[in-house]
Amino acid sequence: MNYIGSKYKLSGFIKDTIYSVVGKSLSDKVFCDIFAGTGIVGRNFKQEVKKVISNDFEYYSYVLNKNYIENSIDIPNKEKYISELNSISPTEGFIYKNYCKGGNGDRQYFADNNGKKIDAIRTQIKEWYSSNKINDSIYYFLLASLLESADKVANTASVYGAYLKHIKKTAQKDLVLKPAQFELSKNNHEVYNSDSNKLIKSIEGDILYLDPPYNARQYGSNYHLLNTIALYDNFIPKGKTGLRDYNKSQYCSKPAVSSVFEDLIKNANFKYIFLSYNNEGLMPVEEIKRIMSKYGKYDLASTKYQRFRADKEENRNHTANKTEEYLHILEKN
Known about the structure:
Low-confidence stretches: 311-319
Largest sheet: 7 strands, mixed
Number of strands: 7
Radius of gyration: 20 Å
Distance between the termini: 38 Å
Structural class: alpha/beta
């Protein structure tokens, strides 16, 4: 997924930095990714550590990580379920009626046929789960597959804060459910859907990786439609963009961020803490250093990085679009 703050392209930098501090032998270590997003960092350590603890406040992230992190044993006949869902007849459900042009207004997040297909697939997954035809492992595998496949045909500029006036080429393609393949693992892993500052008080481990929001953009509004597909609940969409009620993170608030960040560091029962943040974030580098240094030995690593762009492709390689990505390091007392 094309995701704000995704660490996919920074995975090598993050991993090498963690190796340089903790060492490469991590088989006895518990690794926590507490602002997991799509879970790309936790996935990179899944086969190397004793346990991954993955968490995110957003429900769509929880679904993705229940599949990619918690699923560790192969699912028999999973391709059969994918095939059956791909052949299902479209239906006019909640997504079509509220987020497609032919439904209940002007919203055009999906082409009509894809909105109907999303409704049909989501309804069938729900029915299978409610009747105990599928267990948790298959349920989250199929839901994650639907979220990623729907995202590929969304009529947006990467995020769901707004839809495009005209159906773009990729959104004109028919939705095809592609399996969200996960890596197998010998160990058991844990996934949560919780407030990080509350969860941190009840978990412990060796390596804590932090990737909180950097700025005022709320993930709950930018990805509200993924939450709606994942939850598939009944509510009245608000305004032009069809927003649902969503969680607002204090990490997106300039007045609150330093206090809530220090609370997290103070309560973290982890020896090594790594914080991803960039030079355009709400907290300046010196503020982060001041807070983390109070709790142990502080260090800093950095790399140049291409900032997220939701606009035209030809602008993406311009030098003005480069940003400095920091990895703040704390060895806690």
